[in-house]
Amino acid sequence: MLGLVFWGAACTRASRTPVPPSPTPYASPTFPPPITLKVPLPTPTPTATATPVRSPTPTPSPRPWTPGVPTPTPRPTGEGVIEGVVWRDECILTTGAGPVPPGCRVYDKGMAGDGYRHGEPGIPGVRVLLRAGPCPGGEILAETITDDEGRFVFTGLASGYYCVEIPTPQPALGPGFWTAPKLEQSFVDVHITWRKDQKTVAFGWFPSDQGYLPTTCTNIALFVEENMVPAPYTVYAGMAFTKRWRVRNGGTCIWTPEYRLDVVRHTWPEMAQDIPIPRRVYPGEDLVIELPGAAPTLPGFYEVRWRFRAPNGQRFGLGYQGDGDLRLAIFVPEIAATFTLGEPLWTDLDGKIAYWVVPQYDTCEVQDPNYPDDPERTITIRCVGIMARDGHLLVRVLHPAVRDRWFLANYPPVSNGYLEGTFTLLSSCEDDDRYGFIVRAPSPNEGIIVQVACNRRYRIYQWQKGTFGLLRPWTFTGVLHPGGKTSNRLGVWMKGGRLRFYINRFLVTEVGGTWFFQGKFGVLIHSVQTNDFRYLLHDLRFWTIPDATTPTPGEDEGGVTNATNSNSATLGP
């Protein structure tokens, strides 16, 4: 324990100089190694907190001398007994405000232990003296050392006055001061009144490195170090890891097992678990948290953030302002897919625009340029369209006011299969410009949108007549060629309620819970910044996935079925 040691009190009969009552600082103690908290996964079970075994209040009974320094026989001899206990008088502040915590008492100088034993542990190895006469006493008649439960006993005493004293400081006590038998007093008078008299004494030691405690405490967690940096840290699919943080209790509250780490935000349900603190972490002490896990099998970014939570519900993060998080963030790289593709069911390329109505346009409502200061003055213009160019499909933004517009092909609705096409950008491409597919569209106003943005992000969502359903939020990918005047091959695998997205033949994600299981496909474009944003779609092909059944909404389908004919596709990481 850390703290200042206080000792001394006035005695009614003084024959020697009393110990001064004011606190005196001692050399700063050295903390033991930091607590290490190991969190089991994948099914977290809070580690049981070790509770010290505490003995009841001693009942006076004669017993032999406790082991320790040999004790001379008192003069004169008799059958009197003095026994006692030295215990740790604990007062633990764990909240910033509220009533006085159990076991604590507010004194004139501040808060400390209340001087009563509430099942609190004894202190072993404490040297105890027995002096002749009333305190401060004279000749040392005997001395002993407390046992493992903090108990001691003096026997064979004649009637008369004695002083039981505990020299302070001593290593077994550490920093702190006495709260019993009296505040800041390390001795007590005992009167053996008859031949077989038995007396009991008790000494309460309040461990503290700062003297009296304030009536309230502060919760501060200071970051020391961590591994797996910089974040997001690359971990390959399925690989095991152990995340470690070292955090220092920089406040004045003691972190007890009632403290815990709460999840405050995450994109990784398997790792989003609250973490209990296994035992007390005192001010100035370090806590090492170890969190094992395994990377998901699907590529992408995964993150969990935690903050501390006190027993009174106060939540605090890292730093003196309490606004920092303990963060686990990893990146699982994209997986190069293994393709076993036969002949596609159909191909739409090289001069054959068989499945599109071209030209085809859509309109937008924009600000009337003749009335630039009147937002209610608008006009309707052609803002996006598709057309044939050199045997390919040209998709073009005619006015940069387009948000996720798509055109459906005339091909009959499809259910399970693999759709792939190459998008060649002919213009510049700003960060938020987008392109991609719509699949399984039962009507022009419904379907699943799979899109990429030019700043190396992708997103998947579903749209049902104005209702938005997010399947994968905007996520970074390293396999997309960024910017404009480049090409990217996009592929969408569909089977039952599951969908996989491939970029340049790398699997980037898999999602489930789709609303639609059959429908038409189409192309998508979005631009609100780039004038004349456009791309060519070519090498558009479709393979069927055989032996696939259509599940009910939300049902998960299994893996890809092996190809059984020339119009089949087998794709897998």
Task: Walk me through the topology.
Layout: E1 35-38, E2 77-88, E3 104-107, E4 110-113, E5 127-132, E6 140-145, E7 151-157, E8 160-165, E9 176-180, E10 187-192, E11 198-207, E12 221-226, E13 233-234, E14 240-249, E15 260-266, E16 275-276, E17 286-294, E18 300-309, E19 315-316, E20 326-332, E21 335-336, E22 338-341, E23 346-348, E24 360-367, E25 378-389, E26 392-397, E27 402-408, E28 417-425, E29 434-441, E30 446-453, E31 457-464, E32 467-476, E33 487-495, E34 498-503, E35 506-511, E36 520-527, E37 534-544, E38 569-572
Parallel strand pairs: 1-17, 2-11, 13-20
Antiparallel strand pairs: 2-7, 3-4, 5-6, 5-8, 8-10, 9-11, 12-14, 14-17, 15-16, 15-18, 18-19, 18-20, 21-35, 22-38, 23-37, 24-25, 25-26, 26-37, 27-36, 28-33, 28-37, 29-30, 29-36, 30-31, 31-32, 33-34, 34-35
Q: In total, how many beta strands? A: 38
Query: Strand-residue fraction?
Result: 35-45%
Would you tell me the structural class of the helices and strands?
A: mainly beta
CATH architectural label of the largest domain:
Sandwich
Largest sheet: 10 strands, antiparallel
The CATH homologous superfamily of the largest domain is named Exo-inulinase, domain 1
End-to-end span in angstroms?
56 Å
Number of spatially distinct domains: 3
CATH topology of the largest domain: Jelly Rolls
Helical run tally:
0
Shape: elongated
CATH top level class name of the largest domain: Mainly Beta
What does the average pLDDT come to?
A: 82
pLDDT below 50 for ≥5 consecutive residues: which ranges? 1-32, 41-74, 548-570
Integer-rounded radius of gyration:
38 Å
Which percent bin holds the helix content? under 10%
